[in-house]
């Protein structure tokens, strides 16, 4: 046994007790890192990957090395790592958005701390890179969740690409350690291509021996809500546990958490940008209350994915399909980290595949578009800001931001004071990039096919996932999943009294329509209509499905007419509605008009036909950013016979609302013609911005 191994064992026993022993592979990985080998550790969640880099850090520091740089993707994970480091008597600091007031002090102490934890996004910050350049004798860089370096990884994050460029600025002799639980052969090869073929890989078995997986048949959202609520209330195991419920969208997180709360289960929604009633970010508070047990259930998007370390999570339930099986393995790995039994239950429905395909589509980077954006930016000597670039392309802000990030992290462009410039020496190969994008898209669609095969699989679920990850496991069965046990762990009882409550809840997910913000000469134009209403914000609820089906058929049923008329009755009376106006449609010219006429007739008020729409503009759904959406509506809508709306309170009716530009411009035109107040209404809000 060499001196590095002896010291590592001594540190372990001094910290965790004389009977402590390394898990298989830990000591070997520590030795490789201290000996400055490029190392990739692929081990299942809970194996103890942080032990490797913290003990290696301690040994290197004892031999005069400077601080270790740890690149970690999540704020929650950073806090967990700092606590773990304290046990080893390591002084570890983190630089993140939540401790801005401490940055100056932290920067001043960088040469004295043992490790610095930062997010990959921080690598794009010139101030941080400048400060990092003043740190002496850095001998180790850790890349946590290293699969994110790879385009092929399930959770590719563009900022991780900056890591490769950062490593090129360090001497060749520094230690590089990547850690992950989710890297298959393709991802490993891509990481080798970026970090070097001399990368040493420590790979362990990935079958978890304490998580029982159950996959339900396809269910409606109502059935899924009822299933979860009954299970968390009455099931002998689940009713006693804390856990995570994953959803694909923010809107679904809010809906599921709200229903659970209404039925006595402590739950909260968690996603990027989650705010309180005052618009303040409350991410940290949510995690703290879950960590301490004050909140029982977190309903989250993939934001609560990588690295979140709470040892006693008893279940992970997916309300909708994950984006792929590798992401699924990573997410269920939040459960049972203390070794106790845990349940992973996968629910799914008809809408999931459509949402996942939209994610895949949004992840694609069109090489022709990339080249066009480079040309537009390059044509300006003074560079261009994001909104100036947006004017040239039919893209939404989210898509453009994603594309600019891609160009930025690959060093095709750079940024100064929010202005983008093209790197003078960039070499963008559109043909090569097109080949890469096609391969990536093909891989993501293949992963979706594998996911669909998984939910219909009749063998061991955990083994299926391990094979997807190219894991070295020799076990053929986990012995724990619903198929290995030959029984479901939780069932939806036929007399589940939450079914009716869930149906009623989903059918009454009414929403609010607020006007789009508009600007003129850099000044915000005041709101141009009163807040209105949508009957449902969920097109996949029972009533949402009915509305959309009847819309496609071109005729609303008497049942729908009655439902809408009754819903609007109190609004018509409360706001003293004088007349109803329909938003015209070229494709379905009589549909909304018929609905509006019927409601006007039943409530004894006027129906006024004052809005006309031309047929020569592009469909609004093909417009992808606010400027083009607004202009497209303006070019197609006009008013006629406006005397009847002067000084009138108008109920403006449409079938669906998405971007809200049609409603906003229609209301603006009516107000310009003398209407007093406009109250918009739509049957369904299909807005997919979340």
Written description of the protein model:
The chain is of the alpha/beta class and 690 residues long. It folds into three domains: 3-203, 3-Layer(aba) Sandwich (Rossmann fold); 211-356 and 444-505, P-loop containing nucleotide triphosphate hydrolases (Rossmann fold, 3-Layer(aba) Sandwich), CATH 3.40.50.300; 508-685, Rossmann fold (3-Layer(aba) Sandwich). The chain is 41% helix and 16% strand. It contains 25 helices and 26 strands. The strands form six sheets. The chain has a seven-stranded parallel β-sheet with strand order 3-4-2-5-6-1-7, with helices on one face. Strands 8-13-12-9-11-10 form a six-stranded parallel β-sheet. A six-stranded mixed β-sheet has the order 17-20-26-25-21-22. Helix 22 crosses helix 23 (591-603). The two termini are 55 Å apart. The model has no long low-confidence stretch (mean pLDDT 88). One of its GO terms (cellular component) is replisome. Residues 30-201 form the Helicase ATP-binding domain. It is an enzyme of class 5 (isomerase). Its EC number is 5.6.2.4. InterPro entries: DEAD/DEAH_box_helicase_dom (IPR011545), DNA_helicase_ATP-dep_RecQ (IPR004589), Helicase_ATP-bd (IPR014001), Helicase_C-like (IPR001650), P-loop_NTPase (IPR027417), PRTase-like (IPR029057), PRTase_dom (IPR000836).
